[in-house]
Amino acid sequence: MAELSLSGYSRRSSGFKSVLFSVTAFLELLLVTSVIVLEYFLRWTEVFPLRRAVFSCTDPSIGCTTKDAELLSDFAFSARVPSEVIYALSFSIPPFIIFIGEIGLYTFTTEPQKTIRIISKQCVIPQVVRRLIRFIGVFVFGGFTLMVFVDIVKIMVGRLRPDFLEVCQLTNKSMCTSLYPGGEPYGTHDLCQNTNRLQLRQARTSFPSMNSALTAYAAFYIGIYIHGAMRSHTVRIIRPFISLVFVMFSLLCGLAEVGLCLSHWTDTVIGFCMGVILAFYLGFAVLNNFREHLSQEKLIELLNNYVADSYFNYDDGYNWLKPEPVTSIRIPRAQVYRTSSDETDVKYRRPRLKHSTFQHDRHNSLDRYRRNSGGVGAASHM
Known about the structure:
By secondary structure, the chain is an all-alpha fold. It has helices at 2-44, 66-71, 73-76, 83-108, 127-157, 164-168, 197-203, 210-229, 238-259, 265-286, 296-314, 358-381, and strands at 116-117, 124-125. The protein has a domain at 2-206.
């Protein structure tokens, strides 16, 4: 009866875990979809109003022109890449690398693969599929969450881009004063002749840099994955090489924005820091450095092995369990040195031995044992 009750409990427990996994997966998918929709309204629509900062036509920090950017084109290697291309590469390259890495680990690893069951025993998900869904899903969620954070800060700060005056296309600069452009207490688009309101919105949201934040997040996420999941000692140089290449591309992307008058240097630095912080948080705190969680049986086995190794190292009585290769049959000579200056443990100190070698000590012990045994035998005969 006890065995039947335990088996029934295990079946109910496994069924509860399957249902809980399905519900959690549905909620997480719904959450990721909500974040993507929110980012769409923040980035590509005017549903959320932004702060319109006061500007001056004589402000050099927003007066960068195309000619000034051309002077710095050699510095940036003329890397005027559209933001949409940067977004697409940032969201496609890390999943591709994760896919290649997981397929390689699944093909060449010798460790047993864990599987999970959903709802029924027939619905089984292999470990490689589960890891792909988890790692790529967390990356996509983190990327869109980072974009939401950056866009919220952008619309709240409303810092003007270095090329704002050129994007605005002012015609009557005499009306542009250092206090109230257009006669309004807050800067408006009334003086701007550019009819593309999306361009004007992007020109008013420079802080922090979206490209720097997103590329830094993707680069460091890849680096953490490579060092956490690929733990083979045969790729000591390949792992840091791939990681540093993507980090270098991220830095070049931020420097190109500064050189082409698309962002201030402070915008680039803050965006880079935001991406790095989020990548480290998701990689270490959420994904456990891209390593599998150990089961209870595996933890107990590792703990027992560790305790046994530690006990054998400290207890000389169990050294026979760890045989060492015999290199010689010569009996080692043990020699004990006593100094006259050492006055500790005088009460329990043994007298100085006449012969210091192990062989003479053994002969003396045998002779003493024979004499004692002879005396005992004679007394018994009496």
